[in-house]
Design a protein that fits this description.
Layout lengths: L22 E8 L2 E9 L6 E7 L3 H7 L8 H9 L15 E7 L5 E9 L4 E7 L6 E6 L7 H6 L2 H7 L4 E6 L4 E6 L12 E3 L1 H11 L3 H8 L2 E3 L5 E6 L5 E7 L2 E6 L2 E2 L14 H16 L2 E2 L1 H10 L10 E9 L4 E8 L2 E11 L4
Helix pairs in contact: 5-6
Length: 353
């Protein structure tokens, strides 16, 4: 990556809410590698689409991890900024929810997900790298900074290059879904003998290389997640194998579960459960107990029942999304201003190669 030159058209369109259906592309040479970025913004200026074909440098990142001081400026940026730990001093995404249900048409499984955070334009990121599974994920382009001013200071190419490193939920071509939620505790990680990576990069490993939930857990065993226990992952596959991946006593634990909010699923941790996390968990649990066979509308209704509206606008449901892990499609609902817009769904699809 030391010889890579990055000449990328400015990503200011991601924050220019009046831009109409712009399409940008650029080729970035890296020895024999080429990466193509196609960037679009929808006509309403509420959602960006980033399509990345080629090598976006993630395998190089995994070889170095997030503690090598000899990285290029881009990796130095990742090391210093793409860290969930910074939310200790910023606004914490407190109230995400996720669950899996059996598809009512019998074709597979649906996953419902609420992402709760402060407002910014989200992006749908499609990746197509050699040797990796194709994937579709949702990214908050503000996740890696604390303030609007910090975000505006970032070079456009840095913002764009960071996109595949910060997925918050997504699915790959094998039907493996993964997302990240906050968990209300900080525990020390065991860093010895493992490559340290940031939490969102664990999602990228799974999206790129996991063909099952079991494989997802196996892949993470060689890494130490650098969020100090602040986050846990939910992963599921087309067989319905769904698990909470958590760090317990410095070790990765995978506990079978069909739902997750913001407290540990692994039993016996002794960590107190917040009232909000328990309430949302109970609402979803009751819905699944009533019937764990649901169509997309029913999954959406459950997501609506646990959506968040913070009076001080510090955090709220930014998007609700229903993934079909068999068809590799998703139905996305976005917040528009003060309210969630459940009347105008956005259909997403992970297209065939």
């Amino acid at each position: 990556m030391s010889t890579r030159t990055r000449s990328i058209i400015a990503l200011a369109i991601l924050i220019a809410l009046a831009v109409v259906a712009l399409v940008l592309s650029t080729a970035v040479p890296d020895d024999d590698q080429t990466v193509i970025f196609d960037v679009k913004v929808d006509a309403d200026g509420k959602l960006a689409y980033i399509d990345m074909t080629g090598d976006y440098g993630f395998e190089d990142y995994l070889r170095h991890g997030s503690s090598d001081l000899d990285l290029t400026d881009f990796y130095e940026y990742l090391k210093d900024n793409v860290t969930c730990g910074r939310y200790i001093n910023g606004v914490i995404p407190r109230n995400c929810s996720v669950f899996e249900a059996t598809d009512a048409d019998g074709s597979g499984y649906l996953v419902g997900r609420n992402f709760d955070y402060r407002y910014s334009m989200p992006a749908v990121v499609y990746t197509h790298a050699d040797g990796c599974y194709r994937s579709m994920s949702l990214v908050d382009m503000r996740m890696f900074v604390d303030t609007d001013e910090d975000y505006r200071k970032l070079p456009a190419d840095v913002r764009l290059n960071a996109a595949p490193y910060i997925p918050l939920d997504g699915v790959n071509e094998k039907g493996v879904f993964v997302c990240v939620n906050m968990v209300h505790n900080v525990s020390e990680m065991d860093m010895s003998g493992k490559t340290p990576i940031f939490t969102t990069c664990a999602l990228r490993i799974i999206l790129d290389h996991a063909d099952s939930a079991e494989k997802a857990v196996e892949l993470l065993q060689d890494y130490s997640l650098r969020a100090e226990g602040c986050y846990h992952l939910f992963v599921t596959d087309t067989s319905g194998d769904s698990r909470a991946i958590e760090v317990i006593d410095g070790r990765i634990k995978a506990t079978p579960t069909e739902l997750m909010t913001n407290h540990y699923i692994y039993p016996g941790t002794g960590v107190p459960i917040s009232e909000s996390s328990q309430q949302r968990y109970d609402i979803i649990r009751n819905a699944l107990d009533a019937s764990d066979v649901m169509d997309e509308d029913r999954v959406k209704d459950v997501l609506v029942s646990v959506k968040q509206d913070s009076p001080d606008l510090s955090h709220y449901t930014r998007w609700s999304i229903v993934y079909d892990t068999e068809d590799l499609t998703a139905t996305l609902y976005l917040r528009i201003g003060q309210t969630m817009d459940y009347d105008h769904p956005i259909r997403l699809e992970l297209a065939a190669a």
